[in-house]
Design brief:
single chain; about 750 residues; alpha+beta; six-stranded antiparallel beta sheet; 18 helices
């Protein structure tokens, strides 16, 4: 009897599915089972597919591809549909795929199976909706969890927590490949030390995981006998784990086998096509997750390496001063960008480690962009700045040379990209920078600024003030740029803060709102720890509490943060630390050629008096300095030097403002008419100041006024006695009458002061 006759007798058909030609050959029984005339036929793939339930065809496609990849039998169950979409019967097919080039040929049998009756358990769970729904839900959850894992340890933790529908493994192990060696990346369900023999082995070892890596095909061992038969050399090592079934599945990414995944079961598992399909799908997702985690860890390691290489250490302590620094990458990507800081010992001032306290420079800057190129330019620029500073150049010369250097190395980026990437990635870039030359012995700071935010001074009484400094264009904009130098003196117990714009603008802030957020942090800080203050500043903008202070520009991209703090330590004596009087001071020179600096003077005075009790007094002070400085610029040929000082405890402070010039002509009283545009300075001084006067100063003079802060209960403090070094001129309830009108247009040496109200 022929084989075909035997198969027909048991209602079993034969088919040949040629994936290359797209045809399916059926015998008479197979055609009948598919709802076609009971006669041999050769049909197209689409004609045969139309007889299958659409959901089942999706199952067929996955299982056949799995069998092709593993070289195993493809066993599926299919619901056969008629022309009207009604289910005729359920059939089972068992086929062997034969690989032919890039295609395959399926040769197998097809046989009808009985459908379970309603209310009974299905003969095979793979054709039930519950199984499919459970499997789909499991794969969705597994895919989401693995996609969210950020590190290899997280991926392994997710893999260990997977609960597969109906056959959850009791032990897991992930193997990786390192050269010609197989190593364990992680495992679960084994006691510590049990993985000793498998930790490191050669790829030619007679072990299932090594075989999977060598051949790229899964190995399923449903029984201990099967394991012992196929891998007798390593069976004694696996026997002690008391497992009954094992699955070793390759971890493949982009066609490359990167390792193997082992799932071990304490209960027998037959590894049906559905079960193998689930294991293979999980292995693919696991391989992708491990690859992503490996790339992310490599990027993090690269970022940390770049940070360690490019961010300097602050080095030995500086006599009489304390320094703290922070760098926080917040912009994403490689976690390294163009922000940097540096501390450079300068020649000619002794070593920083000797007892003389040699001069040094503090540098902070920000190269445009947040990518590898920005980091590279930052490294080059930092080296150039160190070289120019070490040559002994002044701050303005250091920045001028650095700007020329950056312009020179970036101007070539305007040529066409030979790799076809276009011009955009090669556009010239600039950098902002703040350079401070510090003399620890005197507290003198010589500051040059290239488009960078101004420094902030925290005075001895805790007040935080923005110090306006002269500046020039960012580095690299022009080949030749000038950078004027501003000199400040850091008094004992004062701290200067310099930072990149990330500290101010992170969290959707602009310069104004960002400074409003930072100022309370600086002023509320207590204690002497500069490191603690640095942490508080970073936490205020980048910590958990910073989310409650989101600024108006919510779409602004986050930026890296670089921060430097320098404090001149308080003078100590035999009786312990000195207690400096609560005093805050600001100074500014307004040049004849720069009358726009008057607005800067008004801003600095408002900064100085930001917590003054009486807002009207602040407005009065601002009005008076505008008048005083304008008169100097209009009626003299020199510059105006403004010095403002607030002294005393909060609520009872005295404000003294002096404006000095080099002219020896004293101001005179004028009586302006209704239409006069000037001459009212004296009237303003008499009405608004608590005391005022004119002091001759060598070849020039100083015009001053004082305001006394309203106390907490609304009372005014008594006017303090003037210092011996501060002549106040004639005083009295009325004073002498003013002299005749003079060239100063409204200020006179007449009533030099009024008693406190």
């Amino acid at each position: 009897m022929r084989t075909e006759d035997v198969l027909a007798a048991i209602a079993t058909g034969l088919w040949r599915w040629d994936n290359g030609s797209g045809t399916v050959t059926l015998d008479a029984e197979a055609a009948r089972l598919l709802g076609l005339p009971a006669e041999p036929a050769t049909l197209t793939e689409s004609a045969v597919r139309s007889r299958f339930h659409p959901v089942d065809w999706n199952e067929v496609d996955g299982i056949v591809n799995l069998a092709v990849a593993e070289g195993t039998l493809a066993e599926v169950r299919l619901r056969i549909m008629d022309e009207h979409g009604h289910v005729l019967r359920t059939v089972r097919s068992r086929s062997k795929p034969i690989i032919r080039g890039g295609d395959y040929l399926l040769i197998g049998t097809i046989q009808e199976v009985a459908e379970p009756q309603p209310g009974t358990t299905a003969a095979h769970p793979s054709i039930t909706g519950d199984w499919r729904r459970s499997r789909e839900a499991f794969l969705l959850d597994a895919g989401r969890a693995l996609a969210e894992a950020r590190s290899t340890s997280e991926v392994l933790r997710v893999a260990a927590s997977l609960s597969m529908p109906g056959f959850s493994p009791d032990g897991l192990a992930v193997f990786g490949v390192a050269g010609e060696r197989l190593t364990i990346i992680g495992h679960h369900g084994h006691n510590p030390g049990d993985d000793g023999p498998f930790t490191d082995m050669a790829l030619d070892t007679d072990y299932p995981a090594a075989d999977v890596v060598r051949n790229g095909r899964a190995i399923y061992l449903p029984t201990p006998q099967e394991y012992r038969r196929r891998f007798p050399a390593t069976w004694p090592l696996a026997q002690r784990f008391d497992r009954h079934s094992w699955a070793f599945v390759p971890l493949i990414v982009a066609g490359r086998t990167i390792g193997a995944w082992m799932a071990a079961f304490k209960h027998p598992v037959a590894f049906t096509p559905d079960e193998r399909s689930v294991l293979t799908t999980v292995a693919r997702m696991l391989a992708q997750a491990l690859a992503r985690a490996g790339e992310a860890e490599s990027e993090r390691e690269l970022s940390l390496g770049l940070q360690r290489a490019m961010m300097p250490t602050l080095g030995p302590e500086i006599p009489g001063m304390t320094v703290a620094a922070r760098y926080v990458p917040t912009g994403g990507g490689l976690q390294v960008g163009g922000d940097w800081y540096d501390m450079i010992p300068l020649p000619g001032g002794g070593s920083r480690t000797d007892g003389d306290g040699g001069r040094f420079a503090l540098v902070i800057g920000d190269v445009q962009g947040h990518d590898v190129r920005a980091a590279g330019l930052m490294g080059q620029l930092r080296i150039a700045l160190r070289a120019y500073a070490s040559e002994g150049h002044s701050p303005d010369a250091v920045l001028s040379r650095a700007s020329r250097f950056l312009y020179g190395i970036t101007e070539s980026y305007g040529v066409p990209d030979p790799y076809g990437d276009g011009y955009e990635d090669y556009a010239p870039r600039f950098a902002t920078c703040l350079y401070i030359e510090v003399d620890p012995a005197t507290g003198t700071l010589d500051i040059a600024r290239a488009g960078h935010p101004d420094p902030v001074i925290r005075t001895a009484d805790g007040t935080a003030l923005i110090r306006s400094t002269a500046g020039g264009l960012p580095l690299g904009i022009e080949a030749d740029s000038d950078y004027p130098t501003t000199r400040l003196v850091l008094d004992p117990a004062e701290t200067i803060m310099i930072c990149t714009d990330g500290l101010i603008e992170t969290g959707g802030h602009d310069m104004a709102s960002g400074w409003t957020r930072l100022r309370p942090v600086l002023e509320k800080h207590t204690g002497d720890s500069l490191e603690q203050l640095a942490d508080e500043l970073v936490q205020a903008v980048h910590g958990p509490s910073s989310h409650h202070t989101t600024g108006p520009l919510v779409d602004r991209r986050e930026d890296d943060i670089a921060l430097l703090l320098l404090r001149r330590n308080a003078v100590t004596g035999r009786a312990g630390p000195a207690s400096p009087a609560p005093v805050r001071r600001t100074a500014l020179t307004v040049a004849q050629a720069e009358p726009e600096q008057i607005a800067g003077a008004r801003r600095q005075l408002r900064e100085l008096l930001h917590d003054w009790a009486d807002d009207e007094q602040v407005d009065s002070a601002v009005l008076m300095i505008s008048e005083m400085i304008t008169n100097v610029l209009v009626h003299t040929d020199g510059d105006a030097l403004l010095v403002a000082e607030a002294r005393g405890p909060l609520g009872t402070r005295r404000l003294r403002v002096e404006v000095a010039d080099a002219s020896d002509e004293l101001p005179h009283r004028r009586r302006p008419g209704e239409m006069a545009s000037s001459g009212r300075g004296l009237i303003l001084m008499e009405m608004l100041a608590d005391a005022w006067g004119v002091d001759p100063r060598g070849d020039g003079k100083s015009i001053w006024f004082e305001l006394y802060e309203t106390g907490a209960e609304g009372s005014l403090p008594s006017a303090p006695e003037p210092a011996a070094a501060e002549p106040t001129g004639p005083t009295g309830p009325t004073g002498p009458t003013g002299p005749t009108e003079g060239p100063y247009g409204g200020l006179s040496d007449g009533p030099a002061g009024r008693p406190a109200r």
